[in-house]
Amino acid sequence: MHSQMLFSVDEYRERLARAQAALREAKLDAALVSAPNNLVYISGYRTNLFDSNFRPFLCLVPASGAPVLILPTLEVGVGEEVSWIEDIRSWGAPPGSVAWRGEQPVIAADSLNAARIVIEERKLASGRIGIEQGFGQRIGMSIEQFGQLKGILPKVEWADVTGLFWKLRAVKSKQEIEYLRRASRITDAGYQAVLDGVREGMTERELQGIMGQVYMKEGSDYRGFIIVQAGPERYKMMNPYATDRKIRKGDGVTFDFGAVYNGYWSDLTRTFFVGSATPKQREMYEVAREVSAMTVDAVKPAISCEEVDRIAETELVRRGYKEYMLHRTGHSIGLEVHEIPSVGLGEKTTMQPGMTFAIEPGIYDFSVGGFRIEDIVLVTETGHEYLSNCRRELTIV
User: Is 37 inside any structural domain?
Assistant: First the structure.
């Protein structure tokens, strides 16, 4: 039992204690955790089946007392080894099968009635229960299923716990930071392999393959994400799939990319040029690089996310690039590539030691390219630390 946990039991217990304190402060009796990354955070349980839209994975976290993990029958073995939670209930096996007679027998034929049984056991069927209904997260079941859950628990008052979990997850532990650091090292290695291997005539897919192979060799959970845009007809395409287009002399080639290690992400952007870069491309690249460095230098405890965004935008406007700015300055990163808080106007959250951000001010003139240096930055007690360190200088291959 519990042989493959990614964090210590003490760390999970500390997370649970903070979650329960937040539930009590919000006057909630429990949370029914259903969004995959909240589930990972609070229980340690994770599975490749999160990609399936047909199986809710749930964890009941009461405001006091022990949590209960509610899984499909076939996932109990995974839960027993990767989660710290002792009480695991399962659903889905046919009545009469061996699973109904096991040490932790099946309690229902479907997930919703399994949740109902656990909630009733804990005497919460007339309580206030939170579930993810807010910005940036999703309930881990269909709208139809949530409606059915409301129907079989008619006295439950459902509330939103999205903000509660974003706040819990915002400041990373030492072990989380080490996983983020490792994800960034893998990502750095992937980009260096592309620079070492790129040749005129190669396709975007081939370059994607070089990076992906290094990711897997260096220990990424899976391919992560690798976005490649090469050449003038692709400059305006911010998140396209790689194609069979061949790399030609004069192309700017932009990678937006990130490996994932033990569930924790990196997210970088770099551009290199094939053979040569025009004076305009050189100018815009250097502006993007300098403003990125200036923005990262501003990252420190007690500064607001909005203020960091304002520093980047003010400098780009001062340099004459107001019309070329298309997006915010950055975002938090962790179990998801894009987390809250955002580094953008209106975000009053102050940065704290242990927070991690992707800082990415950019400028875009689609006649010559998009220019963005994106890096992962850790807020430290005295300022900041780059977690990503691949080449930032203008590069011509």
Answer: yes
Q: Residue 213: give its domain's CATH number.
A: 3.90.230.10
Arithmetic mean of pLDDT, 293-319 = 98
Q: Can you give the pLDDT at residue 100?
A: 56
DSSP lists the bridge partners of residue 376 as 358
DSSP letter at 350 equals B
Backbone angles phi, psi at 358, to 5 degrees: -90, 115
Going along 173-314, which residue ranges are E strands? 225-230, 252-258, 260-261, 264-265, 268-273
pLDDT in tens, 342-378: 999 999 999 999 999 999 999 999 999 999 999 999 9
Clarify whether residues 223 and 275 are in a common domain: yes
Residue 201: CB atoms within 10 Å: 11
Q: What is the CATH number for 89?
A: 3.40.350.10
Question: Dihedral of the CA atoms 194, 199, 205, 209 (nearest 10)?
Answer: -40
Residue type, 207: L
What is the Cα gyration radius of the chain? 23
Token couple for 228: 């490649």
| Cα dihedral sign, 37-43-45-51 | negative
CA 137 to CA 117: how far, in whole Å?
25
For the chain, give the mean pLDDT: 96
CA 41 from chain centre, in angstroms, equals 12
Flag whether 1 is in a domain: no
> What average pLDDT does the segment 111-136 reach?
97
- What is the residue range of 317's domain? 174-386
Mean pLDDT within 4-30: 98
d(CA 312, CA 292): 8
| Residue, of 11 and 105, whose pLDDT is higher | 11
pLDDT at residue 51 tops 70: yes
Report the pLDDT value the prediction gives residue 9, as an integer from 0 to 100: 98
Do residues 120 and 58 both lie within one domain? yes
